[in-house]
Protein: Multiple sugar transport system substrate-binding protein
Organism: Salipiger marinus
Amino acid sequence: MTVSNPPSGGRSGPAHVTRFDRRSFLSTGAAGLGAAALGLPGRARAAGRKEISFATASFFGSESFGDLVDSFNESQDRVMVRYIELPPPSSSTEVYQGLVQQLARGNGTPDVFSQDVIWIAGFAAAGWALPLDEFVDADMTSKYFEGTLAACTWDGKLTALPWFMDTGMLYYRKDLLDQYGETVPATWDEMARIGKAAMEAGDTEFGFLWQGKQAEVLVCDAVEAIASNKGGILAEDGRSARIGEPAAIEAIQFLYDSINTARISPADVLSWDEEPSRQPFTAGRSMFLRNWSYVWPIAQDPSVSEIVGKVGAGPLPHFAGGKSASCLGGYQLGLNANTKERDAAWEFMSWMSAPEQQKRIALNFGLGPSRPALFDDADLNEQQPFMATLRPVFTGATPRPVTPEYAKVTLALQSGLSKALVNGEVEREMAALSDQLDKIVG
């Protein structure tokens, strides 16, 4: 058995929590990992307990998720959780493939797993994720953001439990807004006007930076623009396309026009993902930027940012008559449909999603809670003041198309959107894309 390096951040972690690399996970499964391999003294610590396993991508923080698992194991004497650490989300393909191969075996391992929001429908449709209706009620679900619940629902059933989230947001030069006597723009037209004024005044080189690379992030940007115009990519049931409708066409036309008509965005955005678009902004070269929450601490770091103390962040703009929409990211919790310890698995995953653990994750990992009430928490407001301001952003969280065919849908979207943004034939390309999506999901 191959044992990988210590958890992220260089921490060795608790003695009985050991990282296993993906090959070990796939070749043996957590059920095959013996007590000695886990560092347990025989099976004494698990005596009388139900034993389950938890697999998750690893996230950087001042502690590891293994530390949370350790806290759960020490908090009660009914369930013993074995922790399996998968690669970080930057290697999401490996995380996805590892989970797919293991869940497809149908042996119940891992009993609980974390999953990117875009995998939820596929895992549920394959019968790998247990619907949670027997465990949850309306009072419990009311404690989470609506957008996260929507992303966790497939075919009318909650098949994942909200855990933590991230969304797209608008970064802006608050010093220049003050200088111009402007407020944070509520609509895309207002943003374009202010961005153009900043360029004409010579205060910035660009008005608005975003991500147009033919990749997943382009889908995220499109989701936000379309939803902010009261449009959609797929119908609510996920079985037909809406991207050929006027609301979607207008939204994608705006992105094209930002480069070619308003000229507030450089043509380079069509080859940029997150980091290439972030770097000019923190170098002081743009008025506005669409990106994720990771940008904030970078913007406040004087070793890499020219705009420390001059940046604000908030909800993305919307079209007239619409409302702000932010593409939902983050990882949510799933319960293996083949687990042999259903109640024990639920006890653990509900503990992991409880307010106390979500607060701990927010403070120690900087990952956004999926419970709105936590944004009123005094400790969170004091220790993570930026995150505490994100409640209105997360309130507008919008999932990407919810469909078990997402892998095919996103490739079609990336190609069709890219064509429209390059050739400017937005209506024609969206019509062709709509036909293609109908064939995929219909």
